Amino acid sequence: MVEVAVDAAAGHGPGRLALADLAASVGAGDLLTDPAAMEAYRRDWAKDPDVGMPCAVLRARSPEQVVEAMRWATRTRTPVVPRGAGSGLSGGSSAVAGALTISLDRMRAVEVDVATRTARVEPGALNVEVKRAAAGHGLWYPPDPSSFEICSIGGNLATNAGGLCCVKYGVTTDYVLGLDVVLADGRLLRLGGPRVKDVAGLSLLKLFVGSEGTLGVITGATLRLVPAPPPAATLVASFASVADAAHSVVVIGASLRASMMELMDNAAINAVEDLRPMGLDRSAGALLIAQSDAPGEARASEVEAMARVCERHDAIELFTTDDPEEGELFCAARRAFFPAMERRGSLLLEDVGVPVPVLPGLLEGIARIAARLEVDIPVVAHAGDGNTHPIIVYDASDQVATDHARLAFGEVMALAISLGGTITGEHGVGRLKKTALPAQLGEDVMDVSRAIKAALDPLGLLNPGAVL
C-alpha cells in the first residue's frame, strides 16, 4: 500500500498507453491530460505549495465513469484524488504527482421528494443549490458552511462540514440517509436510502461521511430535509475583550438553544470592514452575533435572555432586530471573514474546537501563542459549539515569519488537544494536519483507522497522503 502511494507522489504515473485505455473507458472528451487544462484542478483553498501534477483529470458526468476509472486505477496501480468544488481548507483535494484526479463538479443533479422529505443529490451540486431546491417545496437543508454558495455537497460529505447553524441543527452527517460510494476496486455500494430508521447491518453509511476521499468516491447521496424554520431574530453584542464575549457564550449555551452564535475578534472585524464596509465597530474587542428561530413569542424571549447574559458580562453595546434582512447583514459580515483574510497575506487555516465551557481558555491561549511568536492570528468562531477558526497570517517571503507561522499552527492544535478538543471541527484533516492526528486519537485508534483503510483500499490508491 505504501509503495504505490510513494511511487505516485514521486511522479511515476501511468504511461500513454494506459491513459489511452482510460480515455477509451470513460470517454476522451471528459478526460483532461494537458497540464494547462489541469492547472485549475491541482489546489483547493488551502493552497498547499506541495501539490503535484496529476497524470489526468476526469471530469465525471456519471457514476459509471467513476466505476470505470477506479477499475482502471486498480489495474494500473494508479492513485486517485477525488475532488469536489475545490473550496476545502485543509489540502484534502491537493493533486498528487502522477495520480488521477476525479472531479465531480459536473455531477449537479438535485431531486426533491416532498413525500419523504428527502433530496437525491449528486456530489457536484453546490450546497446553495440544494437549499434552493428544498426551499421551493417549503423545506430546508440546514448544514450551512460559510462557503455555502460555492462548496459542493460531495465536499461537505467528505469533511462532515458544519456551519453557522450547526449549534442547533447539527452537521452534515445528521442529514445523510443514503450514499452511493465507489470503492477503490470499482465496486459501487448503495448504502441506506429515504428511510428515517434503518439499523440493518453495520453502519457503513456513517463511515464514509468525513472520510475525506480515503475510503471511496461518493457519487450520490440521499439527504434529509426538514420544514423551513420561522425567520430568526438577531442579537449583536460588542465587548471590550474576546474573553467577555466567550464567557457570555458559555452561559447562554448552558440554558438557551440559539440557532446561531458566532464570534469575531477585533482583527476579524477590521479585516471584514476593510473588505466590505458594513459599519461594524472597529474598536470592539469582540463581536457576538446570535440568533433565535424559536416559534412565536419564544423567539423574542430567547433573544432578550441572551441580551441579559451579555449585559452581565460587560457588553459595550447591544442591538436586536426581528427583521430577517437586517439580521442577514450581520451574518454576511461573518461569512466575509475568509475572503477578507485572503487579502492580508499567506494563510494557515485552523479550525480547532473544544468543549464550550473551555472556549475562553482556548481563545486566551491562542492570543498568548500569537504574542509570543509575534504572528497575527485573527479569530472567528462558531462559538456556540466551541469550533474556532484562528487564521495565521504571515509573509511567505520572510523565512522567519514563515517558521513562526508554522510553529503557531502546530501549537494551536496542541493547545486544543490539551483542552480536550480537536484539531479540526469541520474542515477535515486533509494533508496539512495529518501529523497532528495521532496526538489527538492515540495509536490504538490510529491502528484501527489504518486497518479500515487497508480493508477497503488495500493498494492505498485513494487520496494518498491525506489524513493517514
Give structural notes.
With 468 residues, the chain is an alpha+beta fold. The chain folds into 4 domains: 2-105, Uridine Diphospho-n-acetylenolpyruvylglucosamine Reductase, domain 2 (2-Layer Sandwich); 110-227, 2-Layer Sandwich (Uridine Diphospho-n-acetylenolpyruvylglucosamine Reductase, domain 3), CATH 3.30.465; 229-342, Alpha-Beta Plaits (2-Layer Sandwich), CATH 3.30.70.2190; 344-428, Alpha-Beta Plaits. Helix content is 37%, strand content 19%. The protein is built from 17 helices and 18 strands. The radius of gyration is 22 Å and the shape is globular. The model is unreliable at 1-11 (pLDDT under 50).
Morphology call = globular
What oligomerization state is this entry in?
A: single chain
* Total tally of structural domains: 4
- CATH fold descriptor of the largest domain: Uridine Diphospho-n-acetylenolpyruvylglucosamine Reductase, domain 3
What's the count of strands? Answer: 18
CATH class of the largest domain: Alpha Beta
Characterize the largest beta sheet: strand count, sense, and whether it forms a barrel: 7 strands, antiparallel
Mean pLDDT: 95
Q: Helical content, roughly?
A: 25-40%
